[in-house]
């Protein structure tokens, strides 16, 4: 969509530069571009190489895991992922002052809501395989879980020594499933617009300790819509126009953008009854650095957390 393409139709010019400009001017510090297949991971790395504030993941989404066997040589396909991850790590060390371009393995996991794309047995096989990738390159994991908590946590438990840490992003499951994830001390829960649709979703989010939470947009998807229960807490607004009336000074209506992560912060603060959203943002930013940018965890970063430690 950031190329102006919607369902194969060119609606406007590519505007990634404008999207990134809005993000940086809105206070976004870094962006992780997610890979969902081998080819997407290559594209994500190419994007990450264009700006020192951009990073990426390497991995295969659960709904795409058939690509391993469709390739004709699943092990060769896996080794291509290993090579790509190592390439991104080394390139980043040269160009970005010791910050790797590739900062996580993923997006990987289980999605039982969309078994028509890939059956459960294939998903489980290659979810587990990608822990081998995380272990090989010593990176955290960017994880996906939909309606699959039991199998997901079983696999996570068997492989807990093979990855340093990770986040289950775009969390939409139940309070019980939340608590299963929180039982893993090195796993965080990621919240975006899809996590904030219903009153029940908001209750689940209220039960996530802030020190185990991250926020994201998952753009161009998962925006906070006017029909969502969480919208009542949104304070920040951007001018928007339909894609058919594209204006580079406006966000495209119905398309999520990184700058809108501020709205996710506002809803999380609102539903948890936290008055100091700025302090909440510092804690969540610290969580993100702890997992994906551990080289930045120093006394200055820790100093951000000196105040208001009673935020829950």
Structure overview:
This protein is of the alpha/beta class. It has one domain: Metal-dependent hydrolases (TIM Barrel, Alpha-Beta Barrel). 40% of the residues lie in helices and 14% in strands. It contains eleven helices and eleven strands. The strands form three sheets. A seven-stranded parallel β-sheet has the order 3-4-5-6-7-8-9, sandwiched between helices. Strands 1-2 form a two-stranded antiparallel sheet. A two-stranded parallel sheet has the order 10-11. Helix 2 (38-48) runs parallel beside helix 4 (74-95). The chain starts with a strand and ends in a 9-residue tail after the last helix. This is TatD related DNase. InterPro entries: DNase_TatD-rel_CS (IPR018228), Metal_Hydrolase (IPR032466), TatD-like (IPR001130), TatD-type_Hydrolase (IPR050891). It comes from Papaver somniferum (Opium poppy). A divalent metal cation 1 binds at residues 107, 218. A divalent metal cation 2 binds at residues 144, 169.
Set down the secondary structure blueprint:
Blueprint: E1 5-6, E2 9-10, H1 16-25, E3 31-33, H2 38-48, E4 54-58, H3 66-70, H4 74-95, E5 102-111, H5 120-137, E6 141-146, H6 149-158, E7 166-168, H7 175-182, E8 187-191, H8 199-206, E9 213-215, E10 240-241, E11 251-252, H9 261-272, H10 277-292, H11 299-303
Parallel strand pairs: 3-4, 4-5, 5-6, 6-7, 7-8, 8-9, 10-11
Antiparallel strand pairs: 1-2
Helix pairs in contact: 2-4, 4-5
């Amino acid at each position: 969509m950031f190329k102006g393409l919607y369902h194969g139709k060119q609606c406007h010019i590519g505007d990634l530069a404008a999207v990134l400009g809005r993000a940086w001017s809105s206070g976004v510090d870094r962006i992780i571009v997610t890979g969902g297949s081998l080819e997407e991971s290559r594209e994500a790395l190419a994007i990450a190489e264009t700006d020192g504030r951009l990073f990426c993941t390497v991995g295969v989404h659960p709904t795409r895991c058939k690509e391993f066997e469709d390739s004709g040589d699943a092990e060769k396909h896996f080794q291509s992922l290993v090579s790509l991850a190592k390439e991104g790590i080394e390139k980043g060390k040269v160009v970005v002052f010791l910050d790797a371009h590739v900062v996580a393995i993923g997006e990987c996991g289980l999605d039982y809501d969309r078994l028509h794309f890939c059956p459960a047995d294939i998903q489980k096989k290659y979810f587990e395989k990608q822990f081998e990738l995380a272990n090989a390159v010593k990176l955290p994991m960017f994880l996906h879980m939909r309606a699959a908590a039991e199998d997901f946590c079983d696999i996570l438990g068997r492989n807990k020594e093979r990855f340093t840490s990770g986040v289950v992003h775009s969390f939409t499951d139940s309070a019980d499933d939340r608590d299963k994830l929180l039982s893993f001390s090195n796993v965080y829960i990621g919240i975006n617009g899809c996590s904030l649709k219903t009153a029940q979703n908001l209750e689940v989010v209220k039960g996530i300790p802030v020190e185990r939470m991250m926020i994201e947009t998952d753009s161009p998807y998962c925006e906070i819509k006017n029909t969502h229960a969480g919208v009542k807490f949104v304070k920040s607004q951007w001018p928007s126009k339909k894609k058919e009336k594209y204006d580079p000074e406006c966000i495209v209506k119905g398309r999520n953008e990184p700058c809108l992560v501020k709205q996710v912060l506002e809803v999380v603060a609102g539903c948890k009854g936290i008055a100091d959203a700025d302090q909440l943002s510092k804690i969540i930013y610290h969580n993100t650095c702890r997992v994906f940018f551990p080289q930045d965890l120093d006394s200055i970063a820790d100093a951000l957390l000196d105040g208001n430690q009673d935020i829950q």
